[in-house]
Amino acid sequence: MPPRVAPAARADSYGVTGVAVAVPERFLLPRPAGRASRAGSACVRATRRGHPALAWAAIPLYDADTGLLVLAGKGENLLYCFEVAPAQPALTQVTQCRTEGSTRGLAAVPRLALDVMACEVLRVLQLTDTALVPVSYLVPRKSIQDFHEDLFPDCAGMLPATGAQAWWAGDNQQVGRVSLHPARRPTETFSSPVITCTPLQAADTSSTEPDADRSEGSGYSSPSSPASLSASTGPSSGFASSPSQKSLQSILGPSSRFRHTQGRVLHRDTHLTNLRGLSLTTPGECDGFCANHQRVALPLLSAGGQIAILELSKPGRLPDAAVPTIQNGTAVADLSWDPFDPRRLAVAGEDAKIRLWRIPEGGLQETLREPDAVLQGHTEKIYSIRFHPVASDLLVSSSYDMTVRIWELSSGREALCLQGHTDQIFSLAWSPDGKKLATVSKDGRLRLYEPRRSPQPQQEGPGPEGSRGARLVWVCGGDYLLVSGFDSRSERRILLYRAQALPEGPLSVLGLDVAPSTLLPFYDEDTSVVFLTGKGDTRVFLYEVTPEPPYFLECNSFTSNEPHKGFVFLPKTVCEVREVEFTRALRLGQSTLEPVAFCVPRVKKEYFQDDIYPPTRVWWEPALGGSAWLAGEDGQQHRTSLQPTNMTPVSEAPKEAPARKFVPASVYLEEKSDEQKKEELLNAMVARLGNRDDPLPQDSFEGVDEAEWD
Question: Are residues 138 and 12 in the same domain?
Fold first, then answer.
């Protein structure tokens, strides 16, 4: 990777960062030729201990007016700020800022756009995967009412100092400097005027010489200076808004309809608890455990390759006593349930044998010691096993002997053997139609086979870098391959390939985070959403995969409180359609097995969300037998609707009359007339009561004669 160069504190020094120099662990300031140091060295080295080296070459941004240097590495979420000085120490750390997203790019905002009255001395823009984040560096001052000249020396203006022809002729005029004081700030706009080749005279810079030492009271050298995040775009930003603003959709790009997906752990009554003696040392090619819609198989740590079989229909706390298990006889390398027979379990052992076990109806009641069948043919330990998605009684396996073998279970024989691998096989996957088989291996190659045509790969292409592990899955109807792996800097990432053009390389590459475990992908073919998580992770990434750019549309992630030991997804038919649940998984914790439901928030849950639930594949019924597939036949599984009988599709729901956004003025006039009528009626009633001329009741009484009072 080429080094990065940035100007340093003085005009006669500069800084270099690169792969050979771990920044910010070491930052070199080479001296110009002819100016050797006291020790005869050609550079001044500033070393900062206690911080990890960046995984990427650092991006340096240097502000010559303040002497501040910002360093950030691609893929990192830390921004380091240093003060560069011509004397020792050459570098003094000011602060470091931790951001939410990983850095993909970095740029400095012009000084004329700073909010000087808020003591903002530097602002950089951090480009992440989904946003452009402004990061402001503020110097705390008691008073922010006055302009602090020690913080804001004059900076370069916006007018060029000379023309192109004059520069070619040897003219070295400097750009005129302007003041950042709000009262003395120039009124020129940012647009550059048309100039002639005649050099322009530079402004007077006697008050701010570039070699002048900075004030001791500037506060830049204090490590406690805060770095605050600011997303303000007010008038102080210095940027005028364009009169022709694009829509938010055109700026941010397309978004997924599953972006608000909510993952939640179901009620404790559905959990399996008090799990003991779980094996956490299964190979990296294994998911750790496997499950179908009826039961789950968990490898145990005890000797003999024991496997616990737990019924999902019987949740609760397991007894402290030992439960019935399968005695596999050797350590478990991988295991998988037959999709067409929920009672048949295939277990690959480290003794290069595959054992087929049949679970009794209702679950294990006693320990199983004798398998139904044993498949032998590999000469080394087995990596992984996968059942055929369309044909029954077909199983594929990969091994340390660098071969991939396809077994016909009805006869117990090896039907096909695929060659062409030169190193460890990390993962393999059948295409949705069952015609092709893809593998990814440690030699960094993707291989695509058509097993019935040739034992050699039909295509090869570059896979993910590194040798730490990889997984792959078919997406978008089998036209694309999604591969999860690592890059040379151990960053986890996903790659999308066109299945018919593997040699051309990936169409898109998306970096996620830095973690030691390989991401295990699960793809929901009905919604085109891929779920990615690793053993020991606490987060599940969700992306909708599309066949056109940008290919990956981010959705809400699911985060758990503690790391999970495994994360396995269940068939689509177990989802609660009335709650708009489109995927369900089982999360294996330290001693619990918890179901996790992924739902899409909808307002009208009383309707069947037919846009979320297209007709799904009848995965539990094979399209043809294994012998027919080996003979060259192909089959296609039927599809069925998940719509309950008493629910109406949301597409057929009655249309509600839209509420009027603007009420005509006549409505207000009519309402006002009614109020006036009420007031007039009330006034009339009061007036009638107050102006009555009728005699009072006591006026009609007959009194006594005046003489009688005597």
Answer: yes
CA 222 → CA 95, 148, 149, 153, 254, distances in Å?
8, 17, 19, 19, 44
User: What is the radius of gyration, based on Cα positions, of the chain?
Assistant: 37
Structure tokens at 201: 């005279």
Q: pLDDT tens for residues 118-144?
A: 888 899 999 988 888 999 888 888 777
Helix (H, G, I), strand (E, B) or coil at 529: strand
285 plus 144 within the same structural domain? no
Query: Is residue 4 located within the same domain as residue 121?
Result: yes
CA angle 523, 608, 604 (to 5 degrees): 110
pLDDT for 76 equals 85
Residue pair 386/395 in contact by the 8 Å Cβ criterion: yes
pLDDT more than 90, % of the chain: 53
CB 348 within 8 A of CB 334: yes
In eight-state DSSP terms, residue 630 is: H
Whether 499 is in a domain gets the answer: no
Q: Identify whether 103 is part of a domain.
A: yes
627, 654, 681 - which closes a domain: 627
Whole-angstrom Cα distance, residue 163 to residue 359?
85
Count Cβ atoms below 10 Å from residue 441 Cβ, excluding itself. Answer: 23
Contact 468, 490 (CB under 8 A): yes
Can you tell me whether residue 626 is helix, strand or coil?
helix
How would you classify the pairing of strands 508-514 and 394-399?
unpaired
Q: How far apart are CA 643 and CA 639, in angstroms?
A: 12
Measured CA distances, 625 to 269, 284, 346, 409 (Å)? 40, 31, 18, 11
259, two tokens: 């972006």
Beta strands 413-418; 404-408: pairing state? antiparallel
Kind of pairing between the strands at 132-138 and 155-156: unpaired
pLDDT at 149 over 60: yes
User: What is the C-alpha to C-alpha distance for residues 608 and 645, in angstroms, rounded to an integer?
Assistant: 10
Q: How does pLDDT run across 421-469, given as a tens digit for each residue? A: 999 999 999 999 999 999 999 999 999 999 999 999 999 999 998 788 9
Question: At 278, which CATH number?
Answer: 2.130.10.10
Residue at 598 is within a domain: yes
Whole-number Å distance between alpha carbons of 67 and 6: 12
149 DSSP 8-state letter: T
Boundaries of domain holding 72: 1-158
Amino acid at 444: G
Buried b or exposed e, range 548-586, using 16+ CB within 10 angstroms: eeebbbbbbebebeeebbbbbbbbbebbebeebbbbbbb
Give the Cβ contact number of residue 485 at 10 Å.
25
Number of residues in the chain: 710
91: exposed, middle or buried (Cβ count in 10 Å: 0-12, 13-18, 19+): buried
In a domain, 678, yes or no: no
How many Cβ atoms sit within 10 Å of the Cβ of residue 303?
8
Verify that 151 and 281 share a domain, yes or no: no
Residues 6+ apart with CB under 8 A from 615: 639, 640, 641
pLDDT category of residue 702 using cuts at 50, 70 and 90:
low
One domain for residues 271 and 153: no
Sort residue 420 into left (φ over 0), alpha (ψ -120 to 50) or beta.
left
Return d(Cα 316, Cα 308) in angstroms, integer. Answer: 15
Of 587, 603, 627, the position where a domain reaches its end is 627
Question: What secondary structure does DSSP assign to 421-436, as a single string?
Answer: --S-EEEEEE-TTSS-
Number of domains in the chain: 2
Q: Residue 56: pLDDT above 60?
A: no
| Whether 152 and 293 share a structural domain | no
Determine the pLDDT at residue 537: 94
**What gap in Å lies between CA 575 and CA 583, rounded to an integer?**
6
Task: Report yes or no: 378 and 403 within 8 Å, Cβ to Cβ.
Answer: yes
Interatomic CA distance for residues 679 and 673, integer angstroms: 10
CA–CA distance, 558 with 537 (Å, rounded to integer): 11
Nearest of 477, 435, 478, 440 to residue 461 by alpha carbon:
440
